[in-house]
Amino acid sequence: MEAVIKDNKIYTAKGFFFGLPVRFECSLMKMGMIIPLSGFKKNFGITQEKDVCPYGVYTINNIQRQHIPAKECMIYLKPSQHKLFLDMANRVDALSEKGIDIIRYGMAYCVKDVEVLEAGYEKYRDLVLQVNPKIDINNFLTLASMAQEHFVSTKCYDGVLKIGGIARNFLQKFVVGGRTMLNSNKVQTPEGYGAVYDARSLYPTAMKFMNANGKKGILLGKPKIIENENLNLDWLEKQDGYFILVKVLKVGIKRDFPILRKLY
Fold first, then answer.
1. Are 45 and 16 in contact (CB under 8 A)?
2. 210 CB neighbour count, 10 Å cutoff
3. Which of 115, 121, 132, 114 is nearest to 43 (CA)?
4. pLDDT above 70 (res 264)
5. Number of domains making up the chain
6. pTM greater than 0.85
7. CA nearest neighbour of 99 among 50, 57, 52
């Protein structure tokens, strides 16, 4: 099987299954959203709706038993989900005097998941085509690659030059991914409730910032090397943009959540 793997994530894979060619693609990387399947109906306006499943009941012992009393299954569901669970069990012929056939129920549940994902995926594809008819998500592996194509096809990069070699290697150092950490980067055991803070929509925020406070958007034209005599803030702040490497000689305060990035 051939696969495209990056950062331990499988973007796409293709091979043969009993002689038939098959191909898998990660829909999450294309859609770029943390929307659970349960939210597809509301967010995409599709008719298909995700069913409920008592995941906790699927232990090795229970799978061997196969038929589990309904009350035992519903321990792992919210009270508001009990009726939905029993309705589906009846609909897929998984409910009998023996209890719930969790094997039959699980198979039907997985099939329904695929149907919901397919409907949401196709609706998402239609929405993207409405924004830009040149972008078919079936031809891309990631949302980032689709955004890049959108910028190119709408002439957003007109006047922008490509950079390679040593210059590109230098500029790549300015690209920093997100990070997740707790206070002081240590394991925490809080008492009671905790809070998780996450910044979202950073790409569009950065794009808007590029045109704010007198800034002129994406840098145009051929980049120039900064001469030594111009390595001062008075000259640098008069430019549309600049990339420089600063050596920090001393960090006066050790922060619980540091924002400095150590390059070397």
1. no
2. 14
3. 121
4. no
5. 1
6. no
7. 57
